[in-house]
Amino acid sequence: MAAISANLGVVTLTADGATLALSQAAASDLKRRIAAALAAFHRERPDAPGIDLQQLRRSQAPQVSAAAFQALLQMFAKAGDVVLDGAVVRLPSHAARLKPQDQKLFARIAPLLGGAERFRPPRVRDIATALAVPEHQVRALLKQLARMGQVDEIAPDHFFQRATVAEMAHLLPALADQAANGEFSAAQLRDRLDNGRKVAIQILEFFDRHGLTARRGDLRRINPLRLDQFGPPPAGVGPRAGGVVDRQTMPGT
C-alpha cells in the first residue's frame, strides 16, 4: 500500500487506525474550499476567532471522518495554510480583537474570573453588580469573548476563562485513574475543584456536549481524543498530574 501510494502521489491521512487516501487534486480542492469558507467567515464575523472544527467539516467535507478531517487540517496547518486554536480553525492572517471600550471593561472583569476563584467564578448578574455595569453589557461582552475563544459559557450566564476550562479538562484523567473502570462522578470533580456539586455537574454537562466526557448513569468516562480541544494544560497540570496547581502560583493570579 505504501508503494502504491507513493507511485500515485496521493495524500494519505491516518486516524483511528485507518488510512484515508486523497488525490493531490482532491486535497488541493479541499484546501481551496476550506480557505474560502474561512475567508468568508472572517469577513462576516471579524470578532470571532474562527470556525468550529466540526462545523467546518460538516460544511466542507462531511464525507470525511472527524479524526481524518483533523489530521487533514493539521497537515494544512503544518504547511502554514490554516491555524488550529484548540477546536477552532482560522486563517493565519486573521486575529479577532475587541473594541477599546470593551478591552477596558474586560480588564475589570478578568480578575473576577481568575485567581483563587477561577473554578467558581461569579455569574453575569453578580459581575454586573460588583462592577456597577449594566447586566446586558456584561453578558454581551462575555458572549463575544466566548466567540473569540477566550471564555466558555459553561452554563447560562456562567462564564469560565478558556485557560481554566483547559485546566479542568486535563485534570479529568487523574480522576478516572482513581477508579478501576476509568469512570468518575460529579462528586469527585466537586471535591477536586472545591466548587460545589451544582457547578461540578454543569461543568461535566458542558464537557458532555463537547464530547470530552460521556455519561453513564451518575458516572463519566473520558474520550482522550477530545482532551486537547480547549488547549494545552497550564504548567504542572496534565493527564496524570494528580492534583490542582497551587492557586497562588497560576499565571495571572
Topology readout:
Blueprint: H1 2-8, E1 11-15, E2 18-22, H2 24-44, E3 51-52, H3 53-60, H4 66-78, E4 83-85, E5 88-90, H5 100-113, H6 124-131, H7 135-147, E6 151-155, E7 158-161, H8 162-177, E8 184-185, H9 186-193, H10 197-209, E9 213-216, E10 219-222
Antiparallel strand pairs: 1-2, 3-5, 4-5, 6-7, 8-10, 9-10
Helix pairs in contact: 6-7, 9-10
Q: Oligomeric state of the chains?
A: single chain
What is the second-level CATH architecture of the largest domain?
Orthogonal Bundle
CATH first level of the largest domain: which class? Mainly Alpha
Mean pLDDT: 86
Number of β-strand runs? 10
Largest sheet descriptor: 3 strands, antiparallel
Helical fraction: 40-55%
* Fraction of residues in β-strands: 5-15%
Structural class: alpha+beta
Low-confidence stretches: 239-253
If you consult CATH, what is the topology of the largest domain?
Arc Repressor Mutant, subunit A
Morphology call: flat
**How many structural domains?**
2
Rg, rounded, reads: 20 Å
Please tell me about this protein's structure.
The structure is a single chain. This protein is of the alpha+beta class and 253 residues long. It contains ten helices and ten strands. Helix 6 packs across helix 7 (135-147). It is flat, with a radius of gyration of 20 Å. The model is unreliable at 239-253 (pLDDT under 50).
